[in-house]
């Protein structure tokens, strides 16, 4: 896709070795609180082809006397959880490796660009995805959340799974137009003997968090559906509800009721205790407390009435006003897809994305020079030429 360039390769960075397997760093994906990091790595074994894997690294340092933060207990819970979440479109856990003062969870690396890359294309090549494409993405995610939320134990009792961290970087758009979840690091459940967090804290990427999560009030299935709504809104408009155009902080503060102000204060206190109360987090929480229906209407002005109605319901501030289940959302999306007419599925979505990618290529280099580089690993990334 990109122009031919001469790039001087850098030597691989060794992470660790266990048995006959060695793991080399490809790139750092995320850094989180309490010493947690996410990597894309290459697993190598003698006589076998290298395999890309996703590593979730947990620090064993500073555990203290409390077992509530024990990473080993968390790993055991994750192993149990992943056995209950076996699905062809959810990344599999390959195993766990303890090396020195680190625990590494080794996850399957799912092929394809992230949904973040998919949403980035309109920023380079000015276009919009078809509503059929948007509804297809919504149906795929609603189906996955329905599976997650509906899991039960052997006796049929609900396990109460909530993803809590649905964001575009943790979703892959596969070559056949299917979507897969690749990041289950914050899934909540009512598993027996579950080890709770030692403190109440916000979970996941703040930019895609439901208001009640940002305010430190907990999460349920409707919180995940709000995150899905934010993802669809961004994919449809290249705009975000927590970054309203022309919204100044003073204007947002003027909108606050006393009750809203208390929720914002509580959310910031919880975030500060967890070590994530940054200025950016404060901006997000303020937007979550003050956006209005007319703000949503302005962002979605170019969408059809049917899709606007679905997004309005997904993005209500109060959970009781949203879709109660992923199945209810899926039903409305199917009705809207039928109203759009024609057959549209994975093959059509993959072809539409590929056309957008091909149209983007001629403009990509100029965009990167003017705006800045996309992260390494993005389908839009152009390497920096060697000096």
Which characteristics define this entry?
single chain; 387 residues; Phosphorylase Kinase, domain 1; Transferase(Phosphotransferase), domain 1; two-stranded antiparallel sheet; 14% strand; disordered N terminus
Average pLDDT level: 83
Shape: globular
Q: Count the domains.
A: 2
The name CATH uses for the topology of the largest domain is Transferase(Phosphotransferase), domain 1
Strand content: 5-15%
Question: For this structure, what is the CATH homologous superfamily of the largest domain?
Answer: Transferase(Phosphotransferase) domain 1
Secondary structural class: alpha+beta
Our Rg estimate from Cα atoms comes to: 21 Å
Please list the strands of the largest sheet in the order they lie side by side: 1-2-3-4-6-5
Explain what this protein looks like in three dimensions:
The protein is of the alpha+beta class and 387 residues long. It is 41% helix and 14% strand. The protein has helices spanning 71-84, 115-124, 131-149, 211-214, 221-237, 249-255, 258-273, 279-290, 293-299, 305-314, 326-340, 346-371, and strands at 13-18, 21-31, 37-44, 51-59, 93-99, 102-108, 171-173, 179-181. The chain has a six-stranded antiparallel beta sheet with strand order 1-2-3-4-6-5, with helices on one face. A two-stranded antiparallel ribbon has the order 7-8. Strand 3 and strand 4 form a beta hairpin. The longest helix has 26 residues, at 346-371. The chain is globular and about 60 Å long.
């Amino acid at each position: 896709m990109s122009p031919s360039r001469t790039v001087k390769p850098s030597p691989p960075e060794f992470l660790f070795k266990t048995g006959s397997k060695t793991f080399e760093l490809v790139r750092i994906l995320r850094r989180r609180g309490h010493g947690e990091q996410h990597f894309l790595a290459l697993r190598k074994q003698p006589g076998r082809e290298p395999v890309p894997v996703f590593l979730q690294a947990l620090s064993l340092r500073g555990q203290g006397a409390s077992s509530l933060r024990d990473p080993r207990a968390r790993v055991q819970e994750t192993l149990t959880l992943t056995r209950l979440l076996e699905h062809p479109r959810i990344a599999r856990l390959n195993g766990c490796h303890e090396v020195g003062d680190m625990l590494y969870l080794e996850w399957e690396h799912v092929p394809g660009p992230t949904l973040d890359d998919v949403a980035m294309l309109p920023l380079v090549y000015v276009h919009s995805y078809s509503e059929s494409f948007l509804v297809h993405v919504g149906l795929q995610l609603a189906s996955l959340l329905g599976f997650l939320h509906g899991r039960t134990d052997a006796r049929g009792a609900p396990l109460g799974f909530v993803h809590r961290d649905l964001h575009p970087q943790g979703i892959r758009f596969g070559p056949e137009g299917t979507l897969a979840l690749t990041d289950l690091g914050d899934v909540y459940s009512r598993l027996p003997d579950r080890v709770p967090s030692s403190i109440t804290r916000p979970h996941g990427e703040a930019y895609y968090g439901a208001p009640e999560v940002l305010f430190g009030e907990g999460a349920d299935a409707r919180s995940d559906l709000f995150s899905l709504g934010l993802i669809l809104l961004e994919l449809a408009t290249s705009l975000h509800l927590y970054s309203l155009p022309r919204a100044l902080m003073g204007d947002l503060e003027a909108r606050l009721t006393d009750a809203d102000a208390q929720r914002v204060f509580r959310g910031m206190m919880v975030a500060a205790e967890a070590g994530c109360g940054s200025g950016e987090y404060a901006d997000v929480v303020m937007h979550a407390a003050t956006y209005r229906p007319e703000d949503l209407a302005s962002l979605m002005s170019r969408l059809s009435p049917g899709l606007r109605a679905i997004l309005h319901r997904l993005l209500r501030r109060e959970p009781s006003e949203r879709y109660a289940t992923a199945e209810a959302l899926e039903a409305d999306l199917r009705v809207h897809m039928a109203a759009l007419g024609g057959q549209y599925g994975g093959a059509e979505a993959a072809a539409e994305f590929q056309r957008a990618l091909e149209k983007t290529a001629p403009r990509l280099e100029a965009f990167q020079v003017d705006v800045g580089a996309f992260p390494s690993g993005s389908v839009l990334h152009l390497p920096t030429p060697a000096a």
